[in-house]
Amino acid sequence: TASEPRPVVVIPYYVPYDYWYGPPYWYPYYPYRYYYYPPVFLPAETLYGPGPVMRMMGVSHWFQSPSPGSSSAARERPVPAPRDPVAHQAAKPVGPRLAPESAVTQAWKYIGNGDAAFAAGDYQRANQRYAQAVKASPAVAEAWLRQGLAQAALGNYELAVAAIRESVQLKPELPKGRFRIWELFGDDRQAARQYVEGFVKKAENDPKDANLAFLAGVHLYFGEQPRQAEQYIARAVEAGLGDKPFVKVFLPGQQPPADNNRRAEF
Fold first, then answer.
1. 260 close to 238: Cβ distance less than 8 angstroms
2. Cα separation of 253 and 249, whole Å?
3. How many domains does the chain contain in total?
4. Beta carbons within 8 Å of 114's beta carbon, 6+ residues apart
5. Global pTM?
6. Per-residue pLDDT averaged across 143-169, rounded?
7. Is residue 258 in a domain?
8. What CATH number has the domain bearing residue 236?
9. Is residue 211 one of the residues assigned to a domain?
């Protein structure tokens, strides 16, 4: 009986042959069974494109309308009516939701971490934490003030003055607030006084540095030594810092107007 022809797709001049195992290797014995099948030409879209892929994945009929007699047509889903967006929002169940942590709360967490680092003498880490607080909420004047004090501890006096300037521009009443320098030392007032005395000595050794004199006055001011602070602030004004509002705020009875449009650049 004649066997059915073997299917050949696209590959032209395909010559099938079998292998027979014999010592000492595999070798084809097609000389004894030689078949030749002519090529089969198919349209390209039968093998390539979205159609064959959909057939392979079994989704070729997903987007086709079912025939009237099919069971899927009998179970045809009703077309949903267009919903009113306002009514849809009102119909949503309102459950208890935790409000996201505010930027101000996050900023104060960074400030607390910075204070701990400052108390440990790690001024670089403290400055980084204060910078993160400023980034989290630039409107928190206390973050700018602390960053200025950390920059002063690192010897970056110009950056320190810029940060303190920003703090009093955001909150002119900040020098009249509750902050005291020993908060950076875990409320250890003795350690805070020793630190301030050391900083004041730096200003004494370089009396022509206006930034250093101003920072010494700021440290003394927040160390509850207003009279000594006034002397160094006046020295800073004479040394070239000028009679600026953010400088005068640390003098008795002086407060500069708030200026929220300016930002210190670091």
1. no
2. 8
3. 1
4. 125, 126, 127, 128, 129, 130, 133, 146, 150
5. 0.58
6. 95
7. no
8. 1.25.40.10
9. yes
